[in-house]
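Render Amino acid permease in 3D.
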Amino acid sequence: MWNRLFRKKNVDQIIKDAQSAEGAGLAKVLGVRDLISFGIAAIVGAGIFSTIGLASFNGGPAVSLLFVFVAFACVFTALAYAQFASTVPVSGSAYTYAYVAFGELFAWIIGWALVLEYAVSNMVIAISWSQYFVSMMSGFGVEIPKWLCMAPSYALEAHAKFLEVGVAGLTGGDKAALIAFQTAPRLGDIPIIFDLPAGLITFFVTWLVYIGIKESQRASNFMVIVKLGIILAVICGGVFYVKPENWTPFAPNGLQGVMGSVAAVFFAFIGFDSISTTAEECKNPQRDLPKAMIYCLLICTVLYVAITVVLTGMVNYKELNVKDPLAYVFEYVGFDHMAGIISVTSIIAITSALLVFQLAQPRIWMTMSRDGLLSKKFSKIHPKYKTPSYATIVTGLVVAVPSLFFKMDFFVDLTSVGTFFAFILVCAGVLYMDYSGLSEKSKFRVPYVNGKYIVGLSFIAGIVLLNVYGQEVIAAWRAMPMLEILKHKILLLIFWMTWFGLSIYSYKMNFSLLPVIGILINLYLMTELGASNWLIFILWLLGGLVIYFVYGYKNSTLNKNFERDAQAKL
């Protein structure tokens, strides 16, 4: 059984299976520009139009450097994705890559984690879209009832706060939530409150993805042009309102405040890997996928840094804890006309990100279904539209229903946990490809820099620097009981142990330096996420393992082939 859990798929067999499966009916229509457009659509979405405000509020102007740091981490991961995409040009993203490098069990775990990256992140985007939509309609004089445009927990929390401190102790957001609680229709004593716009936009985008990749491509290209236009307008127009004194202090809450925004900032970048899910709809995936990943990551990093510098220069960072920061800063400086334009166009911009993620998730399920790990219905291709029809409908339901009832901040950190996990395994997969010789089949390879001595020397340097400059941290650790260290610092301990282990193996096996850097940076960023998110993620993975052992292990294509071969020998 142990050997069966880690059985790997052969690259040539994966490509052959994809060509002979129902998925061979996918339309090959995407070129480099289309892929870059999809990448920009995914990366420049709710992050730049919503969560960038919260990140700036927590970290101040220094968050612009955090974007650079996170993008730096993503570059190493993007290179790893690009190598895998050029080697295994089929849909499935990190799931397929893990199947090749680590075997079936890891592939299932990654595929299950990718549900968090795509489906759960789309819940965030749908909720963010709803907030902008409600704001835009209010600007046109159309007031949507409060109970139809928010998660019920907001209203319940506002009512509880009202009972505790009265109306005088409520903020503007709390007052709106209290109105929702008081005006909502009731089912007995239970107020009926949900986010209708979030559900409706998910339904519309799911329909668009259902009817065809070409239609999705055209819609995405149009929305990306609009999106880039408004972002450039914000940057160019906002420069004239920048006050340098707003950049002081640069990091008001110190390094802790900056790193505390990791989840919000990293959420902005997770979309670049969605490009790899369209491999079977590319005209030349082995050439075009690597180019598109690197280009869109570089373009989006420049945009994020520029807009963060402008936003924190236009208003003080303390003013940016709002749901629509781009529109807010222009309202703040009295340029209401520009604020109105941003509110309208941001609806289109956020829709494009929703479209790409909603496109990616069904294709991962389709690939898992081909491998027998999910029901065959998930690999069914529509005869007319040439899309994974059943998987697309299920994705729509999985995203729409929670977005009707849950708060946005519940999902942001959870999305990042699953993504970090996938990124680490993809970087580690490149090390396996180099070791096993699979890299020889890659038309694009991560540039090789021998890490034999560098990884170990950097580990020693890290220990020295910690002892020289981290005495306060060390003293705090010494004062903590062992149970508290294990409870709150276990991820940091894992980070240092992993670095030590990679130092040893790099010396023994001449590991390539760039994938090692990708592993370490992503693992370090994971340590900045809250323990509660990790607990939910672990429970999520355990639930996924139950499904695998109940259904996937028995119905796996590799398992059936193994049993057939065993019977043939008898």
